[in-house]
Every structure is written in C-alpha cells, then in structure tokens.
Amino acid sequence: MTDPDRDQAPPAASSVHPFSAMNPGLLLDMVESTGLAPDGRLLALNSYENRVYQIGLDDGDFVILKVYRPGRWSAEALQEEHAFAHELADHDIPVVPPLAAGHETLRAYQGFFFAVYPRRGGHAPELDDPDTLEWLGRLLGRLHTVGAARQFQHRPQVDAEWMGRGSRDFLLAEGWIPDHLEPAYRSLTDDLLLDIEAAFQRAGEWTPIRLHGDFHPGNILWTPAGPHLVDLDDCRTGPAIQDLWMMLAGDRPERTIQLADLLTGYEQFCEFDPRELQLLEALRTLRMMHYAAWLARRWDDPAFPAAFPWFGDHRYWEAHVLSLREQAAAMQEPPLCV
Predict the structure, then answer these.
(1) Residues annotated as catalytic (active site), given as ranges
(2) Which of 168, 196, 289, 291 could bond 282 through an S-S bridge, CB–CB 3.0 to 4.6 Å?
(3) Could you tell me if 274 and 206 are in contact, meaning their C-beta atoms sit under 8 angstroms apart?
(4) What is the set of domains in the chain, with CATH numbers?
C-alpha cells in the first residue's frame, strides 16, 4: 500500500515548487478540458495540501477545482478515493463525489492530477448539541458499513510506525527540534512510542475497514437537511475509532457523554468494538506528532511559511513538547467507557 509523504524531500526551501507553475489561465484550461465552460471567475479556497478553487461557469453555476499535490498519491490511489466517494453516494450517504466526464473522474493536465466537484455549501456542525452528535454517529455508522464491505488496495493504513516513529525520526534527522529541547523531545517520544505500541497491543485484533480518515468538523458541512461530507483525500484503512475520536473534546466527563451520543447513532447501523477505545489517546498522539512533521515536510511549499509563520519558532516547539507531555499523562488513564 502507498504511504503518503514517505519520500518527501528535506525541509530546505527549494527555488521553484511545482505549484508555482499554476496560474489562472492554466486553472481555467483545466476546467475547460473537462467540457465545462468557465467564465473567468476564480476564487482560491483555504487548502494547503492540495490547491482548491471555486470556478464560475458560463451558465452562472460554480464548480470546485481540486489540483492534487504532485508526487503525493499515485493515480491508482486517487482513483480509489474517487471510487469510494461514488460508492458511498450510491448508498445515499451524503458525500460530495467528483464529477465524471464520461467514466473518468481523475484528469491529468500539464503534469497535474485534478478533479472537479459540484459546489456544496454549509457550516460547521454544533458539536455541543447531543442531537448533532447522534446524527453524525448515524452517518459514520452507515459510512463504516459500506467501508467494511471491501478493502482498499492502493490507499495507506493507519500506520503507528510511520505516523509516530517516522515523524519523530524525520524531525530529529532534519534538525527541526531546537538544541535545548532535543534531549527532552527524544526521551519523551521514546516513551510515547512505547505507550502507543502498548495501546495497540491492548486493543487486540481490531477489524480494519475503509475510513473517511480525517473526520473533523472542517470536513463536515451542515445544512437544514443535515450534514454532508467533503474531502476524502485522507481516506485509508484503519480502526473505526479513527473516524470517531476527533468529535470528542473537553474534559473526561464531557468526552464520555459525547461518545455515548455518537455511539447511540452509530450502533443503529454498525456494531462498535469497545476494545478500540484503547486506541483513542494513542491516535490523538500520533496525529499531533504527524502534524508537526507534515508542516516540516511541506516547508519548501511557499504557501506553508506564509500560512504558518509561527512554525519552527522555539515557542512552537516548547508548546509542542508540553502538549506531548500532557498526552503522555492522558495515555496512562483508563480508556473512556461506553
């Protein structure tokens, strides 16, 4: 299976990034190559891993153009993402799949893979509302029922070794950790990696299924008719809890209530294995470690220093180490109960 980012270059800035070749004319030509008629209206949307634009059409409508980061995914992995989105839509699960030109959803143009999506509006869900959490639980239960029907062949797995040790080793090897924090960071992450391994051992033989992979409020758009999901760019194989834990926030009693609300909806469609709760804080820790390494790996993209100017500052790493210390304590607590 493909492991995204495994072969990314060191963080030293390069003079020319592949995305620098894009300009409004190229973007409009991409859309026009699919048979659509853009009218010249173009708005860049908030996206860093890929480049995403709202494009106006001659008929007054809009579409969303998504240009994939060169070298991150193979064509097969991108096609598998698109197929999963259409499979979910065929089961009346509210996702936003890419538009097809003939039978093709993935297109290539001047060295870039891209896809065109219908524009869908909405706002972030209100996660402090029990009814909202139950609704999202039903949505995830339906999604996971479809996800369990078969396996990905070209998408990555939730990989504790890569997300954890790979991220830690990259940051140390490339000199991102300030000298005065390196001994503490190295010792702390050594302990965390052992705790993560122990959590996966306690969870036992969990069932791998196809997941959304990045199920957080920013990828959920709420409308009067309910939620719909966008951005399956990180869909992968893993435990069901990976799509549940990012809905939980606050102190332990609050998270326990939120989890109960989610599972009330979820288990109407899909059985949840409570052993996977052993993984919750381990997955949160892996995401924190991977996020820091993701920013470092992307530092040659001019969009990243502009969008994250605080990254790399000593204060960032001091706060990061403090957050990981808090995670070390959280991983010693018993798992949430259902």
Answers:
(1) 214, 231
(2) 196
(3) no
(4) 28-118 (3.30.200.70), 130-330 (1.10.510.10)
